[in-house]
Design a protein that fits this description.
alpha/beta, D-Maltodextrin-Binding Protein, domain 2, 2 domains, 5-stranded mixed β-sheet
């Protein structure tokens, strides 16, 4: 087995990984023991299949590794694909996991006054500046995006911005920080993504993996 025969699959760190593990098992991939060691600093892992390796990176980085063919397959949220819109990524499958919303949130005291169609400018904290600018541009609003990678809910509280755009699941974090969801930009779920070039040059192998994940995702939804 040569390096050219090896498939690298990029997986996201965080909560989505817990939902992914049963799906990996369903498609026949068992990571090496170190993959489950929370103290391990390794980022690349062998599996029970000699031609399949895993890498574990930030969700946003999954798309980059796949777009440049450093990984041939990846799993990331549709929010990542919306933000980067890489032309070299093919996303053939919605896995139906990691469901949440990409939303605008505002302080509870100002939520009733949310009316972007009446505004010309907005300062907003987000890790999705491209998606956010496009969304508000449709209202004719210039969105000044302050890029934050975490602790988004602090921005309105400390006067950095008036609003945030972030992922929302239960909404409990917003409530705990005095914020309210005022507009949903998109419903989000995790997608199986493939490098387009690899999909052409290694079509049989990659189509096989897409079908395995398709069957696993259908099985998970039926369970």
């Amino acid at each position: 087995m040569t390096d050219k025969d090896t498939i690298t699959i990029a997986l996201p760190k965080g909560r989505i990984l817990d939902e992914l593990l049963p799906m990996l098992e369903a498609v026949g991939i068992v990571p090496e023991a170190d993959f489950f060691n929370e103290k391990s600093r390794a980022l690349q892992f062998a599996t029970n299949l000699p031609h399949v390796n895993l890498i574990r990176v930030r969700s946003f980085d999954v798309a980059t590794f796949v777009a440049f063919n450093a990984a041939q397959i990846g799993i990331c949220g549709s929010d990542v694909l919306m933000e980067y819109d890489y032309p070299d990524i093919y996303a053939p499958l919605d896995l139906g996991i990691g469901k949440c919303r990409l939303s605008v949130a505002a302080p509870v005291t100002e939520a009733e006054g949310y009316a972007p169609q009446r505004w010309s400018h907005l300062r907003i904290a987000t890790k999705y500046p491209e998606v956010t600018r496009r969304h508000f541009a449709a209202y004719g609003v210039q969105a000044e995006c302050i890029k934050l990678n975490g602790a988004m809910e602090l921005a309105p509280k400390l006067g950095l911005t008036g609003h945030i755009v972030d992922l929302v699941s239960s909404g409990n974090t917003l409530v705990a920080n005095g914020l309210k969801e005022v507009e949903v930009l998109a419903e989000i779920s995790s997608r199986l993504i493939v490098n387009r070039t690899a999909f052409k040059t290694r079509s049989e192998t990659l189509k096989g993996w897409v079908e395995k994940f398709r069957e696993a995702s259908h099985g998970a939804r039926a369970a």
